[in-house]
């Protein structure tokens, strides 16, 4: 269909993170011009590990990002496993290709993924497409499109006109705040996370994602790099977490604080098993950061006329399901498909909202209820996480049913994904 973009300003994207850059690459694939407004004056590979589920990897492949390129920033995940407080396995399943998906799952460094996407945008769209040091401060819909207001690093106020504005500006989204000035504060359920990376020998399959403990006290760890060919050592991403009384709210005023291991290691001092020494792993990290586990109550709608929310701005969620970044990539592709069907218009944004808002809002609430870690909750209720024979306290059929429900809701059940048509058919472009 004819997009009419010859007579329209570009689509504006607020935010140069994983969601915003994925959408920019999607628009380039479709032949639709865009501009990315990013608050940071320089993009750097910040962050720690994340998982790309097969549904998101499929979309990256269809954007022309290769398996080799993803292998260079992470590792193909082979297993997802849960272990009880006594160190015994509760549940495990293969992941990615080993689970029968047509696409792998990847554990990667978040910052390296962002930089890979950034480099692709620069290569394909040109450096002028990304405007660094532009912090979007608001918007105004009008008959012709939308105006985005922004401030520069020097404090200068300015604006740009666009045909549409897509807000990929994260949990503290200014655009979402304008849409919903009375939205509830950021929700903290009481979980505190400490995150770091340690160099170590990958265990089990060598590419396993492992959750150990209970819902209220657990450690998650997995490799995010290929093992060194000489030493066999890889970068192990880990998250140590406890849940506390949240009635007084998050009190330290810092959402991302560097801490010393002695501040929290006492919670895990006895977690030394014959297959993993958790205190030793925590102590070997150079830099450790403390975060509250936070999300937002789901928004009733992601669209205001010619403005749409995407990624964390739309649906920031607890990381328990390892699908926040994956969903941002899928958002970008679903929105691109809506543009093909309805042109560069508010109708396209409405279609995108109709397809995703309700179903992903349900995932946000499901993750708040522990996501796939609900198995550990149930185990604790049955035997406080300690058992001799898992089948006697928690039969495999029950465990499988809980996981099946979660994967279906999150959109990456094997057959559901393998048999689904491409969100955007290869070669599709605006004519």
UniProtKB/TrEMBL annotation:
Q: Name one GO molecular function term.
A: monooxygenase activity
* Pfam family membership, one: FAD_binding_3
Keywords (alphabetical) are: Monooxygenase, Oxidoreductase
Which residue range or ranges hold the FAD-binding domain?
10-364
- Give yes or no: UniProt keyword Kinase: no
Q: Which PANTHER family match?
A: 5-METHYLPHENAZINE-1-CARBOXYLATE 1-MONOOXYGENASE, MONOOXYGENASE
Tell me the protein's name: Flavin-dependent oxidoreductase
- Protein source organism: SAR86 cluster bacterium
Q: What is the lineage of its organism?
A: Bacteria, Pseudomonadati, Pseudomonadota, Gammaproteobacteria, SAR86 cluster
């Amino acid at each position: 269909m004819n997009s009419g973009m010859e007579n329209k300003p570009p689509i504006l994207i607020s935010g140069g993170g994983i969601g915003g850059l994925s959408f920019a690459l999607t628009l380039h694939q479709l032949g639709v011009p865009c501009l990315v407004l990013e608050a940071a004056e320089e993009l750097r590979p910040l962050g720690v590990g994340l998982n790309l589920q097969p549904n998101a990897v499929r979309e990256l492949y269809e954007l022309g990002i290769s398996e080799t390129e993803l292998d260079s920033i992470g590792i193909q995940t082979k297993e997802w496993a849960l272990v009880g407080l006594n160190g015994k396995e509760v549940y495990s399943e293969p992941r990615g290709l080993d689970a029968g998906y047509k696409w792998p799952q990847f554990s990667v460094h978040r910052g390296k993924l962002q930089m890979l996407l950034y480099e692709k945008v620069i290569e394909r769209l040109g450096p002028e497409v990304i405007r660094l040091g532009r912090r979007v401060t608001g918007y105004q819909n009008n008959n012709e499109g939308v105006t985005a207001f922004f401030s520069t690093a020097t404090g200068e106020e300015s604006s740009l006109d666009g045909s549409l504005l897509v807000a990929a500006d994260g949990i503290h989204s200014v655009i979402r705040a304008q849409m919903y000035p009375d939205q509830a504060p950021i929700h903290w359920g009481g979980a505190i996370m400490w995150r770091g990376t340690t160099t170590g020998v990958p265990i089990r399959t060598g590419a396993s994602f492992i959750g150990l403990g209970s819902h209220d006290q657990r450690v998650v760890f997995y490799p995010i790099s290929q093992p060194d060919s000489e030493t066999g050592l890889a970068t192990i991403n880990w998250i140590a977490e406890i849940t506390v009384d949240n009635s007084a709210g998050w009190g330290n005023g810092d959402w991302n604080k560097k801490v010393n291991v002695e501040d929290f290691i006492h919670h895990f001092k006895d977690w030394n098993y014959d297959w993993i020494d958790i205190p030793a792993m925590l102590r070997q990290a150079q830099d450790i950061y403390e975060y509250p586990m936070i999300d937002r109550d789901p928004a009733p709608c992601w669209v205001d006329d010619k403005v749409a929310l995407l990624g964390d701005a739309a649906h920031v969620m607890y990381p328990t399901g390892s699908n926040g970044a994956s969903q941002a990539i899928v958002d970008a592709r679903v929105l691109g498909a809506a543009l093909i069907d309805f042109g560069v218009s508010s109708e396209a944004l409405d279609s995108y909202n109709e397809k995703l808002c309700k179903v992903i809002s349900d995932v946000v609430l499901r993750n708040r209820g522990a996501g796939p870690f609900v198995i550990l909750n149930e185990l604790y209720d049955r035997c406080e996480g300690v058992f001799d024979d898992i089948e006697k306290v928690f039969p495999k059929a029950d465990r499988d049913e809980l996981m099946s429900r979660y994967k279906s809701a999150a959109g990456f059940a094997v057959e559901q994904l393998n048999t689904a048509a491409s969100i955007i058919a290869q070669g599709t472009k605006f004519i």
